[in-house]
Amino acid sequence: MNTGTGGSVRGYLLNRAKPHLPPWLAVGGAGLAGALGNWRWSDSSAAGVGLTLASVALTSVTWWAGKSTSSQRRLHSAITVAAGSAWVTAACLAGPTVGPLDDLYLMGGPALALSWNVRMVLRHNDAPGESSDKGLLEKVGLARAQIGVAKVEPNRVTAPVALAAGEQTNDDMAKALGNIASALDLPTSAVRYTPDPDSNRRGDLVIVPEDMLAETVEWEGPSNLGGSIAEPLVIGRYDDGAPLLLWLPGDPELGRNSTHVLTAGMSGSGKGDAALNLLTEILSRRDVIVWFSDPKAFQDFAPLRPGLDWGVEGGTDTEIMVEAVKAAIPARTRWLGEHGYRQWVLAAARQQNDREHTCRSDGTACGCPGMPFLVTWFEEAANTLRALGDDAFTGIAQEARSAGVSLIVSLQRPSYDQMSTSTRASLPSVIALGCDPRDEGFCLPDDVLAAGAHPGAWGNRRPGYCYVISPGIPEDRYPSPGRTRRFTHRAVPVMELLATWAQRNGATADPVTVGAAVGVAGTAYTGRTTDGPQPAALRAVREEDDMNHGGPLVDPEDAGIDPEADLPGAEEGDDAPIFGQESGRKPSPEEARELFARALEEFEEEGRMVVGPKDFTDWCDRHNLSRSWVSKRLKDAAMDGRLEPTNTTGRWRIVPALTAA
């Protein structure tokens, strides 16, 4: 009687033996076919011809069908079929026991069957240097590709891949990423492929099984208060939990270049929070100043405005800032060159007490004030580009890096119809947030998209999700998604404290940069002061306190008026009509030129350093002069050195009177 244990053992052995039975059944079938064939066709010459042709055809078909498999499997299959069909043909014509046929059958048949059994056993074990996950590539049409030993990290698996030589390329792997993600039941962004730059068939397959970005992390403060701008800026985290870093200045020791940054993303993609992450990191460093333009009147950045060295709200003020940046670049480059710096480094921000970095011809330390790094930021840059032209930033982007100046441009869609291709090519770093799938090519390079990056898959459904490409970041990180931290109302008090810290402890502009800015902007550039304007949030709190506690809400210029005093009596001329009077006389040419010169002085005093005919509309009406006359005078003033042309046709920059040529 069979026990349960015995039955289970027999069942187990039968189960293990079943996969190895087909080769032995094939051997038995070949012997039976030889015996039956001899009984049927032993004396038929036509059958001999047919069996021979069938044997050759079957071997050829086997060789052709094995084209998509490995070379070893293809050869093994063809040899097996050729040997088996040759023996069956000989057995059918001569008899299975004639001559050596029976010995060949008894020795060769088991040998072939065992060879397939051995192959099956080896196939279920990992080959040296090859992962058991190779079946994954077979599912996506890359059966002959090999996956090496995977490197497993927390929430990240990296496996080297070797594609079939001469048959598959890295492009084939990039096209299969979507199918791999489907096979693993993961989002497309969780599977990336980084090609080996030295090979067109090798690379690393990166799989992130869990999206660690799904949890929103709020901003709680800068990562390195009081550190240097040369140290990394932490603006978020990657999907495997690693910090998302960015560098602005270069590092000659590491071979890292200074960089400009493009921030791009559709409305609702979290572009504002990404900008706040970056700006708060910059303002928390001790050796950097920021010039900031925001046509949206600092809607998102008001708490940080006191920490800026120069902040403007768009329009003519932004036009002046662009011209000031252009003037500052050669001035800063000249200073760096005179002090022996090929590019801005941390030592350039300190007082120049080193004899190796002196501007004196005798070689003694010059003691010149240091030059802090300068960040020029143009928020909502599409507005500025429409006003100044699509190449408004081209010169800055191409020349600023060697001057210790970093340009940051933020807009929703960096397409060729908004920004010139020359400017886009000069912005090597990008923070690409969610966008329309059709705009992916404007945000990221083709090789990063091919490696698995797809910001179009997010749109505005995942605010803060982004890809970051910048010098200093390993290239295999480029297709890895990250997420910036979120700014809520709870972050406002911390931002205000940061702005106060920057006012008191941050760098101040060096004399060279100040001179260049004042030389262009005049009184429009004031620099950062410790008694600068309060953030909008603080002003709102004070006004609310005044209303709740009965405090006065009076304009400063009306503060001396007694509300109880009687109004003054009528005076002569009060009843004179205001309208319907004859227009005044037209000034003489000499008087008109004096009036025009006085108008330029008034514009300069007001800080309006970029002007054009449209700015003189009211002035022309008052003095009975035409806009065409003003246009001619503007050209004359440019020839006299009082004005300089800008990149925009019909717009002129006022040269401050003290520096006019």
Question: How would you portray this structure in words?
Answer:
The protein is elongated and about 140 Å long. The chain contains 21 helices and 18 strands. By secondary structure, it is α/β, with parallel strands linked by helices. The termini are far apart. It has helices at 4-17, 21-41, 45-65, 71-94, 101-123, 134-139, 170-175, 177-184, 271-283, 316-338, 381-388, 394-399, 421-425, 440-443, 446-450, 492-505, 511-521, 536-548, 589-606, 617-623, 627-639, and strands at residues 146-147, 151-153, 156-162, 191-195, 202-207, 233-238, 243-246, 261-264, 288-293, 310-312, 373-378, 405-411, 429-433, 465-469, 482-484, 610-611, 643-645, 652-654. Mean pLDDT is 83; it is low at 1-6, 126-132, 534-553 and 578-582. A ten-stranded mixed β-sheet has the order 7-6-15-14-13-8-12-11-9-10. Strand 17 and strand 18 form a beta hairpin. The protein folds into four domains: 14-123, no CATH class; 134-207, Threonyl-tRNA Synthetase, Chain A, domain 2 (2-Layer Sandwich), CATH 3.30.980; 233-314 and 328-511, 3-Layer(aba) Sandwich (Rossmann fold), CATH 3.40.50; 586-661, Arc Repressor Mutant, subunit A (Orthogonal Bundle), CATH 1.10.10.10.
